[in-house]
Write a structure and sequence with these properties.
single chain, globular, 49% helix, 3-stranded antiparallel sheet
Length: 785
């Protein structure tokens, strides 16, 4: 019997084929057409436009014990004056008037009784104990100013309160929104720093739903609702009246000014300013908040420990090390996570008589992940990206390599660093150089010798802890129960990780007993330029590859012996992904690699040759490797690709690989950024100018484009729903005061036009919130059938 299953129930054996090396109908596999569901999490960027006097971030800094102690130490001569000068410059010199990840302050009296009930519950130490005590930090959410009590809250939580206000949740006498929307508020919470939302409903990945278009539409509607709630909060909670304007949008990188602040202050104060208080989404929010603090503390320590690995690898040497601060800002990056579930696996895991146990789920899941990791370079820059410019001054290996020392073996890390320096042309008179550590000196050197630095396709994927590299003693993906816990224990003793933290993988098993569904989460998406144009085909491709990988496992086409475990083998396949994110054109594979699946891919790859520099290695072009993956998909998933939508997705992928400057997400985003700079190429502008232009592009241009697209999707949903008796019967009564039954779509179109033109008043924004909520609620009901 195939070790992948080891079932003992004959009915289940008929559902899932066991015979190796034999073809079966596609519908008999997990993650087949109409067997797969999708859910999405989005991390968003928030900022607050205000002057210095009305900024909560500024007030939090200058009123802090850290600031007061720093002032006292500076006056006594115990602290150098440059630190307080840099901090004062940060709070006093902000020409943009934008404070990223700042909280907001507004009078408590702005809340209705229903919203106050929600806030009171969320301030409990344990929300399941309604008579229990408050959180020990609850006082930090209230301030008094001139006899008036103000709330000070993160914008992510304000969105939840705004939803409660817009739908009058908790106050039946004032209820104006669609029915039963209290559940929707639970989908607004915080990630480590940024606001986060997750799917209001899971969608079926099926022909009727156009595969990835269904989760893309749901994401767009959720984004539109988030934007509407932000605007509603600005007026209902009198944020603008008190000199503040909150903005929420999609952006992948930590803001430049936040990075600058991080370089000034210690990591403990950074956590105090930016780690989520976790008011929503968890019964014990204070405990979750402490977990967020732990994540930042561990990652800061881990980035410090990476320096010793760089020295061991020979990348840094001597006694000098460049380190501005041990605090790490990587948790402020934002991405999209797409989870796919299998109805077949859910059924098997939920049936105690099926014989399919957690051990089977784990064994299959780990092997699927190892297979998928070979395909992940296909997603980088094609469907999502995070373009970024690095100046010469940034090329300190201690900082620019991020967490790569913990993610790659020394051999691959050295190879990557050499080729990255070559790509960035870090040379003076033919000699390879890196910055010396004095910013003013490095800037002069860069200008004299015209060293411009580099442009990367998706620096976000390099700048945060994406993957945990196994140890020789504790492989993470060998299919055994408890392997991840054993690895975390090893890494904790090495100062790299912590037992309490969730394992970091770019394709992650979602276990039935922990998550309530059996499937996988893709965590490699950065910024989509379009919901339907980029996100939809990306999710469809994720479905194709997951379906193919699971089939490989069940057919016995790929076994654990074919992709052995161990850090070197993991690093060998993962280097390709990071090379893609950086834009390095070539990589090296051992001729005798024991990874048989990788050897098969290389056999499909054109233009490979033996390396002159590294004996025993093949030199492989990244682009050709990815095109070889397309050939394998067409060959091994031919039956899946008989569906036109799936076939078109693979064709679309190929076009993005062959003509990236015409159709890839990377270059669509880059062109939008360059319009802000007025230049034709990223390398024709300075790193600071490009990255600042990128922030403006995400905040304004792309945010408007995303909102316009989401508005069109809402109108498309209304066109369908207004002809549905169920919608008209169950939802129109709540919307009857907006427009007549026949004109609801036209009324919504008018409101969307006013909202995108920034001319809608509070009541019009509230009407749009009600319409959008009704559409989401009805779509959820349809998907549940």
């Amino acid at each position: 019997m195939n070790k992948a299953l080891q079932l003992n129930n004959c009915d289940v054996q008929r559902i899932i084929p066991l015979n190796p090396n034999k073809s079966f109908p596609p519908e008999s596999y997990p993650f087949s057409i109409s067997d797969t569901t999708a859910g999405v999490e989005n991390e968003l960027q928030v900022c607050v436009a205000s002057d210095r006097e009305h900024s909560d971030l500024v007030s939090s800094i200058v009123e802090s014990n850290y600031y007061r102690n720093l002032l006292r130490r500076t006056k006594s001569g115990d602290s150098p004056g440059k630190i307080i000068r840099r901090l004062n410059d940060f709070v006093n010199s902000n020409s943009s008037g934008v404070w990223e990840n700042s909280w907001v302050r507004f009078p408590e009296s702005c809340l209705s009784p229903g919203a106050r009930k929600i806030l009171s519950c969320d301030l409990l130490r344990d929300k399941s104990d309604r008579k229990g005590p408050r959180r020990s930090d609850s006082d930090t959410f209230f301030v008094e100013k001139e006899g008036t009590v103000f709330l000070r809250l993160p914008v992510s939580y304000v969105l939840k309160l705004a939803f409660a206000e817009a739908a009058a949740v908790g106050d039946s006498a004032r209820s104006t929104g669609p029915r039963n929307v209290r559940w929707m508020m639970k989908h607004f919470l915080n990630d480590n720093t940024s606001p986060e939302t997750f799917s209001f409903y899971t969608t079926s990945i099926s022909p009727g739903n156009k595969y990835g278009k269904a989760p893309a539409r749901e994401t767009a509607l959720r984004y539109l609702l988030t934007r509407l709630l932000t605007e509603f909060a600005n007026t209902r909670f009198k944020l603008r009246e008190h000199g503040q304007e909150a903005m929420v949008y999609l952006a992948p990188h930590p803001p430049q000014r936040q990075k600058r602040l991080n370089d000034i202050i210690p990591d403990s104060f950074y956590r105090e300013l930016f780690m989520s208080p976790c008011l929503s989404g968890w019964d014990k929010g204070e405990e979750k908040h402490n977990y967020m603090r732990l994540c930042h503390q561990v990652l800061s320590r881990s980035s410090l420990n990476a320096i010793s690995k760089l020295r061991e690898a020979g990348i840094t040497y001597g006694h000098l090390t460049y380190l501005k601060n041990i605090s790490n800002v990587s948790l402020a990056n934002n991405g999209t996570h797409v989870s796919l579930g299998s109805r077949t696996l859910n059924s098997l895991m939920g049936d105690s008589y099926s014989g399919f146990r957690p051990a089977n789920e784990k064994f299959n899941g780990d092997l699927v992940i190892k297979i998928m990791e070979h395909f992940l370079p296909l997603f980088v820059g094609t469907f999502s990206a995070a373009p970024y410019r690095l100046a010469f001054e940034d090329f300190h290996p201690e900082s620019v390599l991020g967490f790569l020392p913990h993610e790659l073996d020394f051999t691959h890390l050295r190879m990557m660093w050499r080729r990255w320096k070559k790509k960035a042309n870090l040379k003076i008179l033919g000699y390879s150089v890196t910055p010396f550590g004095l910013d003013s000196l490095d800037s002069v050197i860069a200008r004299i010798f015209r060293i411009r630095g580099d442009y990367t396709s998706d620096y976000r994927l390099v700048d945060y802890f994406a993957w945990i590299l196994s140890t020789d003693e504790s492989p993470a993906l060998d299919g055994s129960m408890g392997n991840v816990d054993r690895l975390k224990k090893d890494l904790t003793t090495m100062g790299i990780f912590d037992n309490e933290m969730s394992v970091y993988l770019l394709y992650k098993l979602r276990e039935f007993q922990k998550m309530g569904f059996s499937g996988f989460e893709g965590r490699y998406y950065s910024q989509f330029e379009s919901f339907l144009g980029d996100m939809a085909p990306a999710v469809t491709l994720q479905f194709i590859l997951t379906s193919l990988a699971y089939r490989y496992v069940l057919d016995g086409t790929i076994t654990t012996e074919m992709i052995p475990d161990g850090p070197i083998i993991e690093s060998e396949r993962r280097q390709i992904f990071f090379d893609s994110a950086i834009g390095i054109p070539t990589f090296y594979i051992r001729k005798n690699t024991p990874n048989q699946f990788l050897r098969r891919i290389i056999s499909y790859t054109q233009k490979t040759r033996s390396s002159n520099r590294y004996p025993g290695y093949l030199r492989v072009y990244n682009r050709e490797y990815r095109l070889a993956l397309v050939r394998i998909i067409r060959e091994d998933a031919a039956d899946l690709l008989e569906d036109r939508e799936l076939r078109d997705t693979v064709n679309n992928l190929e076009q993005r690989l062959i003509f990236p400057e015409e159709s890839s997400a990377e270059w669509k985003l880059t062109r939008g950024i360059l319009k802000r700079t007025g230049e034709s190429s990223p390398m024709k502008t300075s790193a600071s100018s490009f990255n600042n232009a990128a922030e403006l592009y995400y905040r304004h241009d792309l945010a408007k484009r995303n909102t316009d697209e989401a508005g069109e999707i809402l109108l498309g949903e209304l066109s369908e729903m207004c002809s549905s008796p169920g919608f008209m019967r169950n939802y129109m009564p709540d919307l009857k005061n907006i427009s007549s039954n026949q004109n609801l779509r036209e009324g919504a179109k008018r409101l969307i036009g006013r909202f995108t033109a920034s001319t809608a008043d509070e009541s019009e924004v509230q009407d749009l919130i009600r319409i959008t909520s009704a559409v989401i609620s009805f779509r959820k009901a349809l998907e549940a059938k």
